Amino acid sequence: MSEPRLPFSGIAELGRLYRSGAVSPVDVVEAQLARIGEHAGLNAFITVTAAAARARARDAEAEFSAGRFRSPLHGVPFAVKDQMLLAGAPLTAGSRVAAFQVAEADSSATAVARLEEAGAIPLGTLNTHELHLGGTAAFPYGRPRNPGDPQRTPGSSSSGSAAAVAAGLCTFSLGSDTGGSIRGPAAYCGVVGLKPTWSRISRHGVVPLSSTLDTVGTITRTALDAALLLEVLAGPDPLDPTCDTRPTDTYAESGSGSLAGVRIGVVEEMLDPAFSDEAAVALLKERLTVFEQLGAEVGTASLPLLATSRLVTDVIVAAEAASSHYGPLRAEYRNYDVNTRATLAVGALLPADVLVQAQRMRTLIAEQVLGCLAEFDVLAGPAANAAPRWEELLHREPVPVREDHLASVPLTQIYNLVGNPALSVPAGTTGDGLPLGIQLAAAPWQEALLLRTAGAFGKALAGLGA
Amino acid sequence: MHMELDEQTIRALIGARELPVPPEDLPEIARRLNALLAEAATWTEHGASEAEVWQWQFAEARDE
Questions:
Q1: Active site residue A285
Q2: Who is most buried in A146, A206, A235, B38, counting CB within 10 A?
């Protein structure tokens, strides 16, 4: 394998190369560390733990020489959204607020620790919108850029997580998704972003934003890689009482690639010009033929409360975030970004009956989504309303939050309200070469079906050269 | 029926919560708060007042 390709190899591919002896984890880590330096202008990383990564790579190389392969993740480099603890690294939460600063973490978040135990090699922490809220106006660690076009946004809030994978700065990354913070950036950067079912992955060691919506997930090059990761990450954690205790599934099962019998419902409201531009809708419709060629039955689904899901989410996020951050907000108000503090202040002022009404609306929205998921196995729609934009982000600060990244959010937020799994899979590019993604969603706990569907689609699309 | 909160009222609420909000932040907070209150006032049209409060129904349904 030629050296330039190594940083872009996926987990499954690296595993094969390691087992064949063709490549050492030292080579991969060095190649990605070099790219991190070369692409520092993307502002994808906040902290690079180069020395520790090199030491782990040498250890993995020695283990491989002795024939010891701990897991499919052994020797695979990754990075962590800077809102979850990575042992030995600082934590910033993308914020200047002193309450969230950890000079050097003593231990890793459970999700990170599970990856480390499986032999994966952390390269550092990744840039994020402050407290993973989205809409940050002034980034303390530099504004993240899209590797496809640095003049454009990589999406929010797992901005560095998506940019780093897309740019070959790490093989996979961890992110979090409260209203689309994994799926949006993945779509904007042309990679796969998985938000599992709420509570599927532990949140111990993760800075909270909105407790009933926050979900830890992954950004990868392929759906198969996401499946391999979920097998390690999912499962109960005694340190997180909200983490679900049901047994995990086999997510990376190799199938025939056929989607025969899978019923896919295209959410018609997501194709409305209010939510998705012409290019996003046209590409989605074109790609539906790929699902049909794989044997899936494609029909039309309807979620009339899609538009309502946006402000229902806004109420719940604001109230829950204010609950988590009220103390620091009072103590360090001016250290928060201007958009973050406005959201938190609104959350602290909302009347309680409005939050109750929002939770009631959430019930109605969930009934619609789960009703559709009784009729269809998978729901489909654009993952972002358009290709990544640029002008607002680079020429106006502070960014009026409603005119920036939130234009896409009803497409993704609705599945956070329900808690069911959803992902963004690359669907191709616009005429300008900008990435667009398709969002797929399944019923709660049906990650295996979701990943199988996305995997089959991704392979078929690669076969078409798209 | 929704009544928009004026800045004086919002200032009083901010004071009650002991938040050190500078005057320059007030218009944006007022705009966002009133937008959410106006939207919430429409939710009864969707039947929100008759619905149960969300309680992770999907997990319970699966366990049954």
A1: no
A2: A146
